[in-house]
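fwd from M.: "can u put these together and see what the complex looks like"

so here's what she sent:
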Amino acid sequence: MAGRGRGRRPFGTDSSISRGEGLPPGLQQPTPVFPVMEQKPLPLAGGEEAEYLLALKQDFRGVMKNLPFFIKPAAAQRDVQRYSDKYHSSEQTNSLTDWNLDWRRFPRELQVHIRRRVREGLAFSTMDSSVPVQKKKKKKEEEEVLLKLETLEKKEEHEQSSEEEEGGVKKKPEEEEGAEAEEEYDEEELEEETDYIMSYFDNGEEFGGDSDDNMDEAIY
Amino acid sequence: MTAQEVRLCGLLLQEHFGEVVEKVGRNLLKSGTQNLRAIVHETGLSVDLVKKSLCVLVQHGACSFIQGRKGPGSPTEYKAHCDRVLRILRYPRYIYTAKTLYGDTGELIIEELLQRGHMTMSNTVKTVADRLTQSMDEGSSMDYGEVSATFSKLVETHFLQRCPPAAGAGTTGSSQTANSTSAAPASSTAPTPESFPDCYRVPQVTLIGRSKRSLASEEGEDQRNAKKAKMDPETHGDEGIYWQVNFERFHQHFRDQTIISAVANKLDQTSSEIVRTMLRMSEVTTSSTAPCTKPLSANEIFRSLPATYNIPRHILDQYLTLLVDDPMEFVGKAGESGGGMYIVNLNQALANLARATLESIVQERFGSRSARIFRLLLRKRHLEQKQVEDFAMIPAKEAKDMLYTLLSQNLVQLQEIPKTPDFAPSRTFYLYTVNQLPTARLLLQNCYKTVANLMERRLFEAKESKRLLEKSQRIEAILASLQASGAEPEQLTEVEEMITAPEKQQLDSLRLHVNKLDSAENQVDETIFLLESYISSSTKPTS
């Protein structure tokens, strides 16, 4: 019928408005961004409780930024390799290794990458190009080794025996990422007690005794 | 999952977990249940980052996973929980409540659990004890037993609960918790934590000793002990039993507090004490979704009043009668036995509090006369234009203006009642009406939008002055290290002068703005809590 559904008259034509008046002219542009307010809002509630809540909130945010749950996106690859890169890279890896998950509560498919990540340490943004990743990885490994030499000296005393076993396992040529994954698994299984990644550490026992065919730089 | 909720969740995830988790979380919230490959494809992030983010989300309970929904070979699917992410806004309130109820120890326990998602009891106790020791004086340290006692108290009063054992994750079939009595098949509905009978049972934990000071202790044995702790993880008999914060219980507590303070504001202190007593007595007997508490006789209430309030029996009866007659209907009478059986109408109280909130919002936004019209329509349901003018005692032109403003903001609806089958405007009644529940939902979405706007503004302000903030942080670090190594006052003043006076002013004003915005977020969250409780209480099916 006329007037039902789509054909409804605008509601302004009800009996309360006299004939000649009409509605105010329609809005031709979006409303202003900061319109003038006739009623000003009330001031915020102050007081001890509100301030304590505020302090709690800001503290909580600050703490969360430093926990291992805060994931920073992969650092943008710069065009030129810079000296400060090796320091930046060590900063990032520390947070990832702090968090010990109980894998029984998580689906298995989320599992592999943690071990991987910890082993490689850095190049988690590009997994497709294998060759440049490995080269960069090796360079970074050796820089890691040099950096962590001092701190891991003590570790070495405690774990002399387990180290020598793994030394041979580690020095195999690292072309196959697949085979590497299994080796990493074994290494990680044996080294679960520590936070430090033993595979980074070159304790010098094998100095001069290993194969040089994959080393691009001299060992210091 | 409305657009405003998704936007707010995204901002919260970004602030607390970083941009990567935010992207993944947003994608899950918008697209519903998805498997890993789909998430990787849609977000465009690397597989490793996505896996890590999913671990973080599952750890904090914001995401759950279901395996084998479409059969044994299908991939694991992940689902994000919007309301769980929105709880992050309320964390300071939970921590503060724990502090008022259980002191500093309780506060730190809740804080640790909120930061970590879920943890075992032994881990929590150790971490909290270490933190407490650091803030105590030299030489004294916190005993594990005290912290464990507070933990047990929190569990007894249901503020903490066990995490439900993950269904079908990792190991095949063997139960993870030492005593989960239900077999965990891959069911399609996620079991709530309370469906497990051991939800609130404290496990036998062997945790004796005191916490050790971790920093700068010269004793060699301390260092060796600390190292040993890292190398062989000590088992305390509660492996695999994880605890999480029970938000529902906290919400119950907040609701009770709100009702008590409302009674105190409307009537007086004594009546609020009576209501507090009644609520305390019904804590254990009433479930969280019950519309009202179990009936309590006036004799019981009289006996359970706190000792400081020794009012005679007939005064108590008068107070109770007053409470029952009050239009807010907090307390109702359910019978005459035992000197009168009284109940607290929880749902009714929430509805009234929500109504008061709506009225106050309209008042602050549009003025007291519009608020008068709004209240009128709430009480009288349907009114014509002419009746509105008469009842509200407002001249016709202004009343019309206000009604149209409210209508354009969707706070008031128009109901057409035709006299003839064609809706001829001259022969149709146009009635104005207000529906409380849809209006509450509308204003709740407005609140979410408000909080999201506040957060964005705060991030914008911080980003504008990023350089200045970094400079001031560096200078503070330098000052701290100088003071620790014992420098002369001249050096300190020299370093302090590195920040110029106008920069200091800028920093101060920035800090003031950021604090104001943060404080405003906390306040809006109180309104959000009230509206959310009202909406969930009125939509829940009452048995």
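replying to her w this: The longest strand of chain B covers residues 413-418.
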